[in-house]
Amino acid sequence: MEHVTAARWITEAAVAAEPQGPGNLLRVVLIVMIVGCVLGGWFLLRGYRRDDDRRDDD
Q1: How far is residue 3's CA from residue 41's CA, in Å, rounded to a whole number?
Q2: Alpha carbon separation from 15 to 1, 10, 12, 33 (Å, rounded)
Q3: Three-state SS letters, the chain
Q4: In angstroms, how far is CA 11 from the centroid of its own chain?
Q5: What is the per-residue pLDDT for 24?
Q6: How does pLDDT run across 29-39, given as a tens digit for each residue?
Q7: Which residues contact 4 (CB under 8 A, 6 or more apart)?
């Protein structure tokens, strides 16, 4: 079995992916963007939650 260096493997993978177009990359970018927006919205909105039971009356 022939040893294939990482650079050669990446080059061959890029050449093989050329005919397919940007479909898979675009899908991954969109999924990551949507998940990031959901997590960012959750992080920002959790600060607006009213939790009167946990508050100490000083």
Answers
A1: 46
A2: 22, 9, 5, 26
A3: CCCCCHHHHHHHHHHHHHHHCCHHHHHHHHHHHHHHHHHHHHHHHHHHCCCCCCCCCC
A4: 24
A5: 79
A6: 899 999 999 99
A7: 12
Per the document, the length of the chain is 58
pTM for this model (two decimals): 0.48
Q: Provide the pLDDT for residue 55.
A: 60
Instruction: Please count the other Cβ atoms lying within 10 Å of the Cβ belonging to residue 19.
Output: 6
Looking at residue 48, its pLDDT comes to 76
What one-letter code names the amino acid at 15? Answer: V
Q: Return the residue matching tokens 């009167």.
A: 52
